[in-house]
Amino acid sequence: MAERVSVTMDKQERDYVQHLFGKHVSWGQVRYLRCAHLDVYERARKGCTFSDAVSGERFYDCFSSAGCFNVGRGNSVIMDTLRDALDGYDMGSYGILSEAKVNFARKLVSLCPGDLNKVVLCATGADACAGAIKLAKGATGRNDVITMNKAYHGHEGFSLSANGKDYYKELFLPLMPGFHVVDFNDLEAVRRLAGPNIAAVVLEPVQGEGGIHVATKEYITGLRKICDEHGIMLIFDEVQTGFGRTGTLWAMEHYGVIPDIMFTAKSISGGLYPNGAVVYREVEPLVGYVEANPQFHTSHSGGTDLGCIVSSAVLDYLVENRVWENAAAVGKRFKEGLNEIWEANRDCVKEVRGLGLMIGIEYKYEFLGALMADCLARQGVWAAYSGNAPQVMRFQIPITASLDEVDDLLRRIRAAVKAMRWYLIPLLPLARVPLIRMILDNIHVQIIAFNLVRDVEEFVLGFLPKKQGVRS
Amino acid sequence: MKKTASKNAVRREDAFRDAAKVFSSSYVNMVQAKGHDFLEQGYTGSLVSDSEGNRLLDCYTSGAVFNLGRKNTAIIERFKRAIYETDQGNFVMPSQEKALLARRIAEFMPGNLDCVLFGVTRGESMDAACKLARGFTARPELITVDGGRYGESGFALSLTERPGKEQFGKLIQAVKVIPFGDVEAARSTIGNRTAAVVMEPVQAENHCRTADAGYYARVKALCESTGAKLVFDETQSGFGRTGTRFFFEQTGVQPDILIVGEAITSGMFPMTAMVFTPELKHFFDIHPLIHLCTFGGHDLGCLVAMTALDEYDRLEPWKNAARIGDRMVGELSALAEKNGSKIVSIAGKGLLLSIKLAAEDLARRFCAAARAGGLLVNIGETDRTTILIRPSLLISDEDATEIFNAITRTLEAV
Known about the structure:
The complex is a heterodimer of chains A (472) and B (414). In chain A, strand 16 (385-386) and strand 17 (389-395) form a beta hairpin. Chain A has helices at residues 11-35, 64-67, 76-85, 99-110, 125-140, 157-161, 187-193, 217-230, 286-292, 305-320, 323-344, 368-377, 403-431, 434-441, 443-461, and strands at residues 42-46, 49-52, 58-61, 116-122, 144-148, 179-182, 198-203, 206-207, 213-214, 233-237, 261-264, 276-281, 349-355, 358-363, 381-382, 385-386, 389-395. With 472 residues, chain A is an alpha/beta fold. By secondary structure, chain B is α/β, with parallel strands linked by helices. In chain B, helix 4 (73-83) runs antiparallel to helix 12 and helix 13 packs parallel to helix 15. Chain B is globular. Chain B has helices spanning 2-22, 25-33, 61-64, 73-83, 96-108, 122-137, 154-159, 183-189, 213-226, 248-251, 278-286, 299-315, 317-338, 360-372, 397-413, and strands at 40-44, 47-50, 55-58, 115-119, 141-145, 175-178, 194-199, 229-233, 257-260, 272-276, 343-349, 352-357, 375-376, 378-379, 386-389.
């Protein structure tokens, strides 16, 4: 019984699941997601959609667990691979070699540009981030690291120290000294700090949680030059941007720049089995350091046999289907559509930006993040705003999406924006008053207000006849 | 037959050459020096096979992960079905899978460790524990004991005693290390700036070092009187390994936060967890999504873990671990007496046992010779003169005899 997962849930069962989650994990999380209508219980995952266990409605997955589903959800090739692998494998023994581990590592480096030929197997993006920073610190013998404002690399100690938003750090101080946060795309700021004490510059070529900020070509080439001049390790976080998301297999290809160290995770798992990796250049001082310290970063949960078998299948699938080309073509259409929406809504939308199928819309007000998520959910679009920039709605659908699906998605987004504009009639004038805007932007106020609206809505709907059929 | 064997040997050599190229040659050399110069290929129950078809008794279990043996049938059956029912899920969302596993863990845990935050690596769960303690108490100081090992992530590494740590520069600040088992040091250090006191109640990699029974209670009392939180890491000692569900039951002291390792799925899925009391959950109630992990609480992993917990309850492997462990401690102690020049001491509980040898080189040679004799063991990561014996908790008496005989033969050979 304990392992049973319902295909569908009625509201009573949903309330019980929420009760369990609230009791054992976090009530705050339940309320927070409910306020933005993000409390959907996923079932029937297929391609770039899933259905809600309660309403049966189908949603476009515009979050993709922050970019984990590049092979599409419910990909039968990857699922069958994992099923078959279970006949012969488990996690495997940490520290003992297997063909699964070696084959995956070889396959991974064969797809990496330049001399990115060496691998450290890891379990998650944060684990890989820790490995990358340790590698840079160890190899250079230096302590300090330059990281970016609004950057997001994970929540363990190294990646948290490199995080570019104080909210995630300030309750857990003191962290690691020597992390310098500079503005993204500000080359002069890096140049001012660069010196013999700096081990690494760490950045996401396209900031995900930071609100889909794309690094300029001048910035990335400039960083490469500064790092070369000062013996600093350039580290790219390709956890979200890798595996075709931005329209090339790696985001670094847009810039023609090879970092010294790159780390990745998320989509390497096929959305089924955790895995991650640090990839580094076959150059000194990196190679010499690892040769002298082969266990500088160990990860018992990383590079497992099952994980490596799944990840190898993911790489094969991506290459065989040239999925990044689809991301580029479909992303172009999607961005054009979002730009049209921006043109028509310049009073509340500030900008549309992104690469491939990693696209964000920035609103002019922070409180619009939760409001727009709610309006989108009502149109069958599940989208989450950026963790480090709530005014930015991220659209990261699985990159296997078709042009037809993106056209349908755009139609729904347009309808959601239209609905949101009704709320804006009273809210926009109010938001011009600084104090009221501060209240509207406060997440705790949003949680209370939107949950109240949901409560009233559910109460009223309880008296109406039940909807027949399922909206597709 | 001969042809197959030589073909497999070529495959192995190719794989090792590729591994040297893509990982590092020193890593490959290190593995080979320990006698682990084989490709793991196929495993079942208490056995693991190498690429040449030789069967080894698995007394490594990837660091006390495969508690229910390799490839438990019930877990695999459920896993296969679950692949077609769910996937990772969008990690920020509550899900039925996460909620049911959270309830299942609360049922499984002794005491009132009713709340959970899911992780993937041991280190990440330890980092979450340190953050929770700091966040909840609004205090900075983390106190740990010497000889501990908690993982390779930022907080965990800062608390860990291991060579080479200084290469990574300044780590997490406000960390103090006190001698394990020293009540006086604990009394003079734990105070009203202390957020947490962190320890493994059994330091598996450090010759299964434990403290006197009274030590844990004194530390707990000091935590209670100062408002600090007690964190136990039972990554290796949990899930029946030492003869009870968790080792802390034997100490009579329940921690405020417990780290559990990959044994939660018996090594079928990378999952760890931080389990804690309802009092502490208040912090996550008022700070939702303050600590995230994309693969943590993986919906598919949750279904695998639930089945593993059902299997733990059905099989109660801690009973077998206690019984066979007692027997093995007796036999190994007698062996140690007879081989005083090679064995310094035997330590451990249940099926988490450690043989301390006279020198590091001897431990390395023992490890290699054991493999040649059909036994897969590994060297302690902290005390590198030790050999850890941590087989499946479901081994039979015959397996135990075979393990003991292999150890005896290996000892003669080195």
